[in-house]
Amino acid sequence: MMVCICQNVMFDEIVEAMRELGNDPEAIRKYTDAGRGCSECLKSGCSDVDLPFPDALKAAETVLNRS
Ligand code: FES
């Protein structure tokens, strides 16, 4: 699932970043470069991507809590 088109960031990368860095949105954003472009994907509900960054964080947290 695409999180950020401009930087070609996929959901799996958000999960990996959260696994490495913990639930620190700013650190995850810098680590993955998500949002470094048009920044539309930083808005929850953005329909240009599969899973905007704020929603990807919530989903990643759920995935990691299950594992
Ligand atoms: S889609 Fe993420 S910065 Fe443009």
- Residue runs with pLDDT of under 50 for 5 or more positions: none
Question: What is the 3D shape?
Answer: globular
Write down the overall mean pLDDT: 96
**DSSP E strands, number:** 2
Examine the coordinates and then state which fold CATH places here, giving the name of the CATH topology. Answer: Arc Repressor Mutant, subunit A
How many discrete structural domains? 1
Q: So, CATH architecture? A: Orthogonal Bundle
Share of β-strand residues: 5-15%
Radius of gyration, CA atoms, in whole angstroms: 11 Å
Class derived from helix and strand content:
mainly alpha
The CATH top-level class label: Mainly Alpha
The percentage helix is 40-55%
| SSE arrangement, N to C | EEHHH
Tally of helical segments: 3
User: Strand count, sense and closure of the main sheet?
Assistant: 2 strands, antiparallel
The small molecules bound here are: FE2/S2 (inorganic) cluster
Spatial strand sequence of the major β-sheet: 1-2
Distance between the termini: 19 Å
